[in-house]
Design goal:
It comes from Cenococcum geophilum 1.58. By secondary structure, this protein is an alpha/beta fold. It is built from nine helices and seven strands; from the N terminus they run αβααβββααβααβαβα. β6, α8 and β7 form a beta-alpha-beta unit. The site of one 2-acetamido-2-deoxy-beta-D-glucopyranose has 7 residues, from α6.
Length: 225
């Protein structure tokens, strides 16, 4: 009797595991992806709303402790601190990252370091275009979520200019099999949501970012059918 019950239970667990084949999702960007806590909050929010089959992927795994008590989250990601969009594009880094960690959904928050080093909207959007093409070369059906980036008070006019260019750029690169959704991470993000470094979100900023990613993630997950 006992043995039969255990077999029955494992059959049920096995069947539901199959039904919920995991959806691979890559959080991609620089330190605002690597050294922050919005990924932990996003993972927890997805879990708590029954999106338990989202597999965060990437070549890196963060050690950052997030939440209290600390959240035991899926730490894999592709956020490279200090990296510029134009360098990632010019050096062709993304194809290898996606080859190691294929994905169905990708979020990109990138360009802050480009702006800090003086690059403007045109150069950054050109890099974004290269990156989108590389995402689709890896997976023709990639569901792509691109952020209008969070404020950078030291260079805010350059951020505002980049963000203003993103919607029309994204629309020009859009496709029905590989949609691009733009997430406005700028609006409503206050200077008090930044750490003292004036660059990275603090805990309040991480929660604001998470809420916006979450809505876009549900749209992307829904589009997978
Ligand atoms: C998650 O699933 C559980 C069990 O089926 C259910 O009780 C709960 O209401 C669901 N939560 C959400 C947010 O859908
Ligand atoms: C951002 O500020 C830094 C430091 O003042 C400056 O060197 C850089 O050129 C600025 N970026 C842009 C795009 O203006
Ligand atoms: C791209 O197309 C999808 C529908 O396939 C739409 O939801 C999305 O808003 C479009 N993105 C842009 C930037 O126009
Ligand atoms: C975020 O940092 C600001 C200072 O920049 C501080 O006033 C605020 O209390 C912080 N909020 C949280 C939730 O850490």
């Amino acid at each position: 009797m006992v043995l039969i019950s255990i077999y029955a239970i494992s059959a049920i667990l096995f069947t539901s595991a199959l039904a919920e084949a995991s959806i691979r999702y890559m959080p991609f960007g620089a330190s605002i992806v690597q050294a922050t806590c919005w990924r932990a909050y996003l993972w927890q929010h997805l879990q708590s709303t029954n999106y338990t089959n989202i597999d965060f992927v990437g070549s890196l795994s963060s050690s950052t402790q997030c939440g209290s008590p600390a959240i035991n989250y899926d730490r894999d990601h592709e956020g490279h601190s200090g990296y510029l969009a134009i360098d990632i594009a010019d050096k062709g880094l993304l194809p290898g990252w996606l080859e190691s960690s294929p994905a169905k959904i990708i979020t990109m928050h990138l360009g802050t370091n480009d702006i800090r080093e003086g690059y403007g909207t045109k150069a950054i959007l050109a890099a974004y275009s290269t990156l989108i093409d590389q995402m689709r070369a890896s997976n023709a059906d990639m569901k792509i979520i691109v952020a209008q980036i969070i404020p950078l008070p030291a260079n805010d006019s350059a951020v505002v200019d980049l963000n203003a260019g993103i919607p029309a750029w994204a629309a020009s690169k859009n496709s029905s099999v590989s949609p691009i959704w733009v997430v406005d991470q700028y609006t409503g993000f206050l200077s008090s949501d930044l750490r003292d470094d004036g660059i990275h979100p603090n805990d309040s900023g991480d929660h604001k970012m998470e809420a916006k990613w979450y809505t876009a993630m549900l749209q992307a997950i829904g589009s997978l059918g």
